[in-house]
Specification:
Helices cover 62% and strands 5% of the residues. It is mainly alpha-helical. The radius of gyration is 31 Å and the shape is elongated.
Length: 441
């Protein structure tokens, strides 16, 4: 046990003291700061290129048109289309917008024409289309003598509010339950996938480096191969946790400092409002935010956080042991050994795709239930389902299989590691690694 602790300490301190680790840990929050500043700049960017568009309204439906962001509408007066085209060629105008009469009010699709040799930017094209569509709608209502205020009474929005039958009122779900569950589960899934993959590959690279540099031959003279492998797995895991903690602390500090230093209002991060958004009720927005926060507070956070830690540790030990075994089997030519990483990476990626494709549609589907119990998939799939309160027996079975599988894969990787770490000059195949599992000694 003392030798194992020494290996863990050596693995941890060696990597933590590296300049690359320190720089990478510090650069991540700096990258977050740059990202936030870029988003702030882009969200407030209006653009300086304004185009002048002459509006030829043949049926007198849309005039006058108020200017949009980056688009200045100019009435055509009594000028013909040909005369307006000449002004475009003379650079007096940027384009001509011709709006033909509406022949049939039952027709929903209407085509308007824009004349110019320059391409119309997609943003400006969308603004013009929305503005003209709103004007044509108003023209139709006026022509049919329809009351706009009465027509608005016909518009209805339907949302499902789940109501339990057997459950008590405290467990009653709201219409925001599904959305909040998807958000919480999705964040947990992404973090687990990213962390398990990154730190597992860190173990593999560490094993490959020591094997390539022949340092492992010296260490094996006084340490058992299993202790050496476990020391690397635990040490790399502690390095990863240290980096995550540092990122969380520094990122939180950056997120708190940036608004104070920049004097930035969070409302500026919102997307530009379209004309139809101008009537949004601030009280409705605030009420929606309060309901979402209430739904977040109703989540079983002790269970979510505790299971997150257990599934991370279980998934980390499963996949890092597989990566350690693969690293021990690789020789000097890492390109030839890349095929060995596929069996270790494929289940992790497949689990992520199952959650991304099937989980978002139905977290309790048969495929998701299987993925949340199967130990190679469950470290990614079950945390996603936990936000939707799956049956307790599925959670218990999944946790048990993850813990048992972690112990089994560590033992199995140790059988491969003890042979592969001292083997040089031979191209290793999956068949060869299978034989190593049954070597005696």
């Amino acid at each position: 046990m003392s030798k194992l602790s020494l290996i863990i300490r050596r693995e941890y301190l060696t990597r933590v003291r590296k300049k690359s680790f320190i720089i990478g840990t510090l650069l991540a929050p700096v990258g977050l700061l740059v990202y936030m500043l870029v988003i702030i700049g882009l969200s407030s960017y209006q653009g300086s290129d304004e185009i002048k568009v002459a509006v030829l309204d043949e049926a007198k439906m849309v005039n006058p048109l108020p200017d949009e962001k980056g688009v200045r509408f100019i009435p055509s007066g009594n000028k013909t289309l040909e005369a307006l085209k000449i002004e475009v060629t003379e650079k007096k105008l940027d384009g001509v917008l011709r709006i033909p009469p509406v022949g049939n009010f039952q027709q929903k699709d209407h085509t308007i024409f824009y004349y110019s040799d320059e391409k119309l930017a997609p943003e400006k094209s969308g603004l013009i289309e929305k503005r003209i569509a709103a004007k044509i709608k108003s023209f139709k209502m006026d022509s049919l003598k329809l009351d706009a205020s009465r027509l608005k009474l016909l518009e209805s929005e339907v949302s499902i509010d789940p109501e339990g039958i057997k459950s008590d009122q405290e467990d009653d779900q709201s219409k925001y339950s599904a959305g909040v569950g998807l958000a919480v589960g999705g964040i947990m899934t992404f973090l687990l996938f990213f962390m398990v993959l990154m730190y597992g590959q860190m173990v593999m690279k560490s094993v490959m480096e020591e094997k390539t540099n022949r340092i492992v031959e010296v260490m094996m003279s006084s340490v058992r191969p299993f202790d050496l492998m476990m020391g690397k797995i635990i040490g790399a895991g502690l390095v990863g946790l240290t980096q995550v903690v540092a990122w969380v602390v520094l990122s939180g500090a950056v997120s708190f400092i940036v608004p104070l230093v920049m004097g930035f209002d969070a409302s500026q991060m919102q997307a530009p409002m379209t004309p139809g958004d101008a009537t949004m009720d601030p009280e409705l927005i605030q009420d929606t935010g309060m309901r979402i926060m209430a739904e977040l507070s109703r989540q079983n956070w002790p269970l979510l956080i505790g299971s997150f830690i257990i599934y991370f540790l279980g998934g980390y030990f499963i996949y890092s042991s597989m990566f350690a075994a693969v690293g021990s089997a690789m020789g000097d030519d890492t390109g030839e050994g890349q095929a060995l990483t596929l069996p270790a990476t494929l289940p992790l990626v497949l689990a992520f795709y199952i959650v991304s494709m099937a989980g978002w549609r139905n977290p309790d589907s048969s495929l998701m239930v299987f993925a949340s119990i199967f130990p190679l998939f469950s470290p990614i799939a079950m945390p996603f389902r936990l936000a939707f309160n799956p049956p307790w027996w599925q959670v218990a079975l999944s946790l048990t299989l993850v813990i048992v599988s972690a112990v089994f894969f560590v033992w199995l990787a140790g059988r491969i590691y003890r042979v592969g770490i001292l083997m040089y000059g031979k191209k290793v195949t999956m068949k060869e690694m299978w034989k190593w599992m049954f070597y005696k000694g």
